[in-house]
Design brief:
509 residues, alpha/beta, seven-stranded mixed beta sheet, 36% helix, globular
């Protein structure tokens, strides 16, 4: 089973390896998840004037963060993110990393299903399928169309006004699309993607792109979408995309032949021994000459590293602990960003046990049905080479903000619950034997929740960092949790760090 990076590509040694630098570094990045590795690659590899005195310090024994690809006995599966929706930033990184030929795309016509009225119903993805779908009633369709086009306009609720106008996801989408659409489409989507609660998540933060459409459309989504599309076409003409980027059509999901870890492993391998595994930063001490001295716990003991710039590409608990002595208000603010427990359960069944042909992306489950599992990705239907012939592998998610009790369940209890839910939705009438259990990965801190007040927490973080030039922070608690969002965020942070290095004293490469 694959699980950790081969350490001939990435440093796994102790204090002596760092001590060899012998002088102040230009950049230290704490955290070797996708955001941190993207930043490091942009600064240390891709740049026309690459930073040589750069380190990435990772507390764990592998790179990738939540990206967790595993394989065994002909099965290959993901225990974190399972695919990506490509943006230009991600495609550019894939090309720059030499992975263009390793990328694979799922059929964009594969339907997504919602379980409703004891059957799977395809989510409408076109005007024709929307008109004919039985998932949304006639009244619900009319309400959605009138709201999305601005032909009817509901006011922001008094509760949201009392919060300064910030709406929950439920309030935002109910106002625009109607209550039925929220129950049957929005809530299952939020549960499946964020493992979140529509009554707690901020519409403006968790769905920032849709909130931007509303602003551009003077309070209405469809006019905002039209204006945005026109603006993008104009911008594309003025600044055409790189000619070497792969062509990816709208709706196509991507991965790599060897799974998503191919990307993070490759980025780390290109950085070589500038990535140090099992190196935990335990303290940050600002120095009088605008540098930072880090105390680092390594396999060989405690050492110190001095750097001109520092990026904390870590989850909020790690970031907050390191910042607490320096910026306690920032630390306190980001400590309020919740991360619910989610279990990723990978099960495999003989295809003969399934009651559908499994031609699809997967299925989501409205919370009102009382089914515990949040949703299921039909993994081996998406990409080739994910299961042996005659088998179907399923990636199931359970827990999240609406089911905190999952944290107290044993792995056996979790598997039993998921198998029961899968049996109800996907398996034939007879109860088949227990499935083949490939993995149960319990993420105690799974996905950061962009709840009400999220932007104010990020503002408080930034206010504290401004007191310390050269100290930066960023991970998937800002800018989006998807793979493409993390890459875009990493490139943004690289530009900020690079600008700081340029403005501060000259560096030698």
């Amino acid at each position: 089973m694959t699980g950790t990076l081969v350490n001939d590509a990435v440093g796994n040694t102790g204090a002596a390896a760092i001590a060899n630098w012998g002088e102040t570094l230009d950049v230290v990045i704490v955290g070797a998840g996708l955001t941190g590795l993207t930043t490091a690659h942009e600064l240390g590899i891709k740049s026309s004037n690459p930073v040589q005195k750069l380190l990435v310090l990772e507390a764990g024994n592998r790179v990738g963060g939540c990206v967790t690809t595993q394989s065994q006995d002909g099965f290959l599966w993901e225990e974190g993110p399972n695919s990506f929706s490509a943006n230009p930033e991600l495609l550019g990184l894939i090309v720059d990393a030499g992975l263009k030929d390793e990328m694979i795309l799922a059929d964009r016509k594969l339907p997504r299903f919602v379980y409703w009225n004891n059957k799977l119903t395809a989510v409408p993805m076109s005007p024709g399928s929307f008109a004919s779908t039985s998932l949304i009633s006639r009244a619900g369709k009319i309400r959605l169309i009138l709201g999305a086009t601005g032909l009817i306009s509901e006011k922001v609720t008094p509760e949201a006004l009392a919060r300064g106008g910030e709406e929950t996801v439920r309030e935002f989408f109910t106002r625009h699309l109607g209550a039925e659409t929220v129950e049957k489409l929005v809530i299952p989507f939020v549960s499946g993607v964020y493992a979140g609660d529509v009554n707690q998540l901020s519409g403006q933060s968790a769905f920032a792109k849709l909130a931007a459409l509303e602003d551009r459309g003077n309070g209405t989504l469809v006019p905002g979408a039209v204006k945005t599309l026109m603006a993008r076409k104009k911008a594309k003409k003025l600044n055409p995309p790189r000619a070497d980027l792969p062509v990816v059509k709208s709706g196509e999901l991507g991965s790599f032949k060897g799974g998503l870890r191919v990307l993070t492993d490759t980025l780390a391998a290109k950085l070589g021994d500038r990535v140090k595994l099992n190196h935990r930063v335990i303290a940050i001490n600002p120095q009088p000459n605008d540098t930072y001295r880090l105390t680092v716990e390594t396999p060989s003991g405690i050492t110190t590293v001095t750097t001109r710039s520092l990026l904390l590409a870590t989850p909020t608990n790690t970031t907050g602990n390191l910042l607490q002595p320096l910026a306690p208000k920032s630390s306190e603010a980001i400590a309020q960003i919740p991360y619910p427990t989610v279990a990723c359960v990978i099960l495999a069944y003989p295809k003969s046990d399934l009651k559908t042909d499994m031609e699809g992306f997967g299925n989501l489950i409205p919370r009102s049905l009382g089914i515990t599992t949040l949703g299921t990705i039909w993994a081996s239907s998406l990409f080739p080479g994910r299961a042996p012939r005659g088998w179907q592998s399923l990636i199931n998610f359970i827990g999240g903000s609406t089911n905190p009790a999952i944290a107290q369940m044993s792995d056996g209890e979790i598997v039993g619950q998921v198998h029961q839910d899968v049996s109800r939705i996907l398996l034939k009438e007879f109860r088949p034997p227990q499935p083949r259990v490939l993995a149960v990965h319990r993420w105690d801190r799974a996905i950061p929740q962009y709840t009400i007040g999220h932007q104010q927490r990020l503002d408080a973080l930034q206010a504290g960092l401004e007191q310390y030039p050269g100290l930066f922070a960023g991970s998937n608690y800002m800018g989006g949790v998807a793979v493409g969002d993390c890459v875009k965020n990493g490139l943004r942070l690289a530009a900020i760090v690079g600008e700081h290095l340029t403005k501060s004293q000259p560096r030698l490469f």
